[in-house]
Structures are given as structure tokens and as C-alpha cells.
Amino acid sequence: MEIQDKMIDATKEIFSTMVMMDISLEEVMESHGKLTDTITAMIGLAGTHRGVLAVHFPYSVAMAITSAFLMMDVEEMNDDVHDAMGEIANMLGGNVKTILSEKGRDIDLSMPSTISGSEYSFQSDNDVEKVIVRFGTEKGSFMVELDLEK
Amino acid sequence: MGKNVLLVDDSKTMRIIIGRSLRQAGLDFDNIFEAADGLEALEVLEKESVDIVLSDINMPNMDGISFLREKSSREAMKDIPVLMISTETGEDIIGEAKSLGAVGAIKKPFTPDKVNEVLGPLL
């Protein structure tokens, strides 16, 4: 199974078991443009594989996911949204680590971190292999991105 | 049930979800204490009566493995069971956790049924 297929399965599992939100696979991509009104949560990978696992959520999607996660209305980009998006990145990062390292000691994961803004680019300075998967929700689309150094 | 549980996770969202999963699994604890890392968890265990700890592994300040190591060195709390709930499922890491006294592990993401299946027999 390709790593992108495992990323897709892992994302669907997280949303069906923990977020309780329907998502649909929209597209597997190799690049994306500038991100607007978006929050990005990311996990760094170090060791035998180096890179970053990132999830990019438009604000409206991020607030809808946080509302579903916490079972309460969230209508502003507050700490809860950052924490919830970080936890989704954390769970996906753990899955990617399992895919790349069965025993778990040859890859270290960083703590999740988040950034957000009205317009920004997300790109690596190093030569990386990118896998980007876009998913759809009722509130819009979001992307899961894995950048692994070659 | 008459038991107390301590949830240790740096994510407030995850602590809320674990607490909700316990209720959905029919595991009604008298008190659900929370800590954001291993250091806070040790402080709670010093002050409160806790029957079981559910702990993440990757946390700032003191991670779950260091927490297990420190807890096992303290006579008053060394026998309190700890169940790991983490994205970490590698056999090396889970093996180390178990060697330090962890009684099992649940992988994130999880369902309330999974929590019940693993945690239920420990209570």
C-alpha cells in the first residue's frame, strides 16, 4: 500500500472515530498554492526519516471540526481550535511514524505546533517528496501534507 | 463505581475526549483529575487518591516514559496502574513503558468501545 493510501485511511479513521464528522477524499496533489485564512498544524519527524506532517484547515473548517471534537459551538479562532488542530496533526504524525518505523525508536516526533494567517506559503527549503491529500467536509476542504526529505 | 482516574495529556481537547469516552463506555468515575504533563501528574498523585492513570507518552516538560520512571521510584504511588493512551504504538516504546509498569496501551484514535475493552478489566 502506498503511503498516501495509508494517510487517507488514517485521516478517515481519525474523523470517523474521534471527530464524528463525515469527510470525503477529493484529490491527491503534488503541490498547493498560498494558504488563505488558514490554520496549519504540524509535527516534525527526525531520525531515519526527516520531514514534516502538516494539516491545513481553513478557519471555517477548523472551527467546525473543533465544535464536533468538543461537542460545543466554537465560533472564533481561539486556543481550543489550535489545540484541536494540533491533536489531529499529532494523531496523523503517530500514524505516519508507525508506517515508516514499526518499532518506533528510529524516528522521533516533535510536539505539535500551529500557525495561522490571512495569507502564507508553506514550503520546505530542503529537497522533499510531497504527498498532499485534499478532503472535503460540509464546511469546505482541508489538506493533509507529508513532506519527506529525499 | 467509587473510583478516581487521572488523565495525563498536554492537549486539553484530548483530555475532554478521553473523559467523554469514559462516560460513553459506561465507566463512571467519582472524580476525573487532569494533568498536562508528567510533572503535574506526580503533583496530583501526591495530593489525591487515584485508582488508575491514563497517560499520553509525548508531552512537554516530563513525558510519559519519564513519568513512569519517576512514579515507580516513589513508594506512595508506585503501585497505581498506568494505561498509556498515545499515538506511539512502536513495540520498542510500548515495551519500555510496560517494563516501567504500564499495564497496557490504547492507540489514538480510539473508540469508547476500545477504552472499555482495555480499561474495563483493570477496574
Query: Can you identify the CATH superfamily of chain A?
Result: CheC-like
User: What percent strand of chain A?
Assistant: 35-45%
- Count of DSSP strands of chain A: 7
Gyration radius of chain B, rounded: 13 Å
The spatial strand order of the largest sheet of chain B comes to: 2-1-3-4-5
What does this structure look like?
The complex is a heterodimer of chains A (150) and B (123). By secondary structure, chain A is α+β, with helices and mostly antiparallel strands. Chain A has a single domain, classed as Chemotaxis protein chec (3-Layer(aba) Sandwich), CATH 3.40.1550. Chain A is built from three helices and seven strands, in the order αβββααββββ. Chain A has helices at residues 3-19, 59-70, 79-100; strands at residues 24-29, 35-47, 51-58, 107-109, 113-120, 128-137, 140-149. In chain A, strands 1, 2, 3, 4, 5, 6 and 7 form a seven-stranded antiparallel sheet that branches. In chain A, β6 (128-137) and β7 (140-149) form a beta hairpin. Chain A is globular, with a radius of gyration of 14 Å. The two termini of chain A are 20 Å apart. The mean pLDDT of chain A is 93. Chain B has one domain: 3-Layer(aba) Sandwich (Rossmann fold), CATH 3.40.50.2300. Chain B has helices at residues 12-24, 38-47, 64-72, 91-99, 112-119, and strands at 4-8, 31-35, 52-55, 82-86, 102-107. Chain B is built from five helices and five strands; from the N terminus they run βαβαβαβαβα. Chain B is α/β, with parallel strands linked by helices and 123 residues long. Chain B starts with a strand and ends with a helix.
